[in-house]
Amino acid sequence: MNETTPAIEAQGLTKLYRDYYAIRDVTFSVPRGQIAAFLGPNGAGKSTTMRILTGFMSPTSGTARICGFDVATERLKAAVNLGYLPENGPLYLEMTPRALLKYFGSARGMTTEKILARTEFVVDKCGLGSVLDKPIRKLSRGYRQRVGMAQVMLHEPEVLIMDEPTSGLDPNQIREVRKTIREFASTKTVLLSTHILQEVEAMADRVIFIHEGRIVFDGPTADMKKEQASLEAFFHSRTGVPV
How many degrees, rounded to 5, is the angle at CA 152 between CA 52 and CA 133? Predict the structure, then answer.
C-alpha cells in the first residue's frame, strides 16, 4: 500500500431498503496508523457501514476501498489486507483456539510455517496461552472475544475493523482488549464501531459520528470536548436529545 493511500475509504456510501435509507452519502477516509471510532446511537447505520466496508453487504451506491482496493471489484485483494470482527462473531465452539487458528490460516492459503509463527504471535498478543487447547464452548465470553481477535489478526492485515469489540465484557476483559487494539494500531489501522463513550475516550484518535444514516461529525477526539462540557453532552447534542 502506498503510504499516501487511505487504509480505509468510504465514498458516498448509500444503502436503501425500498423507501428507507439505512445510510446516506457516508464519506470518510482513515489513514494508516490511526484508531478511529465510528460512534453513534443504536440504529444509526454503524453496522451497515461496517458490513459494506468489509464486503459482506453491497451498497445501493458509493464505493468502499481497503488499502486502495475496491471492495466490490477487487474483493480478494481487499480481504488480504482486512481483519473483520463483527459483534458476537461466530466461532466453531467444538474446536480449540489452536485448531481454529490452523483452520483459518489454511483457508487463507497460509503456509504451515507461517501459521505456526503467526499463531505464536497472536496467542501471545491476545493472552490465549492458558486456553489454547480447551474447547471454545468452555471458554468465557472474554476469552471467546480474544479468540475472535486472534483469528482476525492471524494473517497480519493492514486494517482491523471491529463492531462493538468490548460489548458484554467485564472491566478486566475490557482493559485487555483495549491494550491489544492499541498495540495493533501502532503500525496498522483500526476502525471500531461503538456507542460507548468510554471506549472513544480510552482508545480513539478520531471520531466519525453517524446519526440517522448520515455523518454529523468527523474530527479529533479532543474536539468533542471543545464543543461541549462532556462527551455525554456532545453525544446528546449530535443526536438532538436534550441534556
Answer: 145
